[in-house]
Amino acid sequence: KHIHNRMPVILKPEAEQTWLNENNQDILLSLLNPYTFVMDSYPVSKKVYSPKNNSPKIALREDDHQQRLY
């Protein structure tokens, strides 16, 4: 399936407080750097679309989660 081209900001831990508390756009833009590590994608439960579902289990790889249910 298609994966959209939007991507969350991935910050180094030491930049998180600056990202949350800074108002200067130049400083914020300086935190945006390409992510240079390999990323993996996998299907997860459609339950992730609703804030009513608040469990780390819904972010498990869907095929792994199915195997644990049965």
3D architecture notes:
- The longest helix has 8 residues, at 62-69.
- The chain contains 3 helices and no strands.
- Helices cover 29% and strands 0% of the residues.
- It has 70 residues and is an all-alpha fold.
- The protein has helices at 16-21, 25-30, 62-69.
Mean pLDDT: 83
Structural class: mainly alpha
Roughly what percent helix? Answer: 25-40%
**Rounded Rg:** 16 Å
Unreliable stretches (pLDDT < 50, length at least 5) are none
| N- to C-terminal distance | 25 Å
Beta-strand portion reads under 5%
Shape: elongated
Give, in order, the helices and strands. HHH
Largest sheet: none
Tally of extended strands? 0
Q: How many DSSP helices?
A: 3
Helix and strand arrangement:
Blueprint: H1 16-21, H2 25-30, H3 62-69
Provide tags for this entry:
70 residues; mainly alpha; 3 helices; 29% helix; elongated
Short description:
By secondary structure, this protein is mainly alpha-helical. The chain has helices spanning 16-21, 25-30, 62-69. It has three helices and no strands.
